[in-house]
Amino acid sequence: MSELTSESQDALNRDDFVQEQGNGKQERRIEVTAASLNFSGPLPPPQILAQYNNAHPDAADRILKMAEREQQHRHETQSKMVETHISDLKAARHEKRLGQILGFTIGAICIFAGLTAVLADHPVSGTIFGSTGVVGLVSVFVAGRQINKENDDSEISEALMPSAGTPPEDDEEEIPSREEVS
After folding, report:
1. What does the pLDDT look like over 110-168, one tens digit per residue?
2. Which of 2, 29, 51, 53 stands 20 to 30 A from 19 (CA)?
3. Is 178 in contact with 29 (CB distance < 8 Å)?
4. Phi, psi of 178 (to 5 degrees)
């Protein structure tokens, strides 16, 4: 149970709240009113800012500057995240392109080695080298397309779903209740 403030305790001790009942008993009635004010966002409403200024002369200005710094920090962080994502996509594209070039080169070398072996009267080894090159090229391109499709699907789902690490846009704050005895 919450403790009573000194004002509440004084009000309880006053005789204003004592009422006589018909059977000779006294009854004490007290009305308690609780007020609550909710707001969302980084800044309180103007009335609350004015009350902050009453408590400390430049409090409202300090609160506004704090909110501006927080917004600037969020924008900078978001810009860095976007830049990092773009550079990661560029690096992945470069890596994929390099893999394609190297895979094609190895496949072409195997096919060329197989062709050379067949022309040099080594048909078995030439067939093995040539077919290895063709199978390697086909499997790399087929598997590469399937992996690309899976990556594209995951990137689309990541773009549609908000990240868990980002802070919410608006923070909801609640001002504590105040009890008044009337």
Report:
1. 889 999 999 999 999 899 988 888 888 787 777 766 666 666 666 655 655 555 445 44
2. 2
3. no
4. -125, 130
Residue 153 structure tokens? 């699907």
Residue 60 burial (10 A CB sphere; 0-12, 13-18, 19+): buried
Cβ burial 147-160 (10 Å sphere, 16+ → b, else e): eeeeeeeeeeeeee
Structure pTM?
A: 0.48
**pLDDT (tens digit, 9 = 90+) per residue, 49-104?**
888 888 888 999 999 999 999 999 999 999 999 999 999 999 999 988 888 888 88
Angle, CA 73 vertex, CA 70 and CA 75 arms, to 5°: 110
Burial class (CB in 10 A: 0-12, 13-18, 19+), 9: exposed
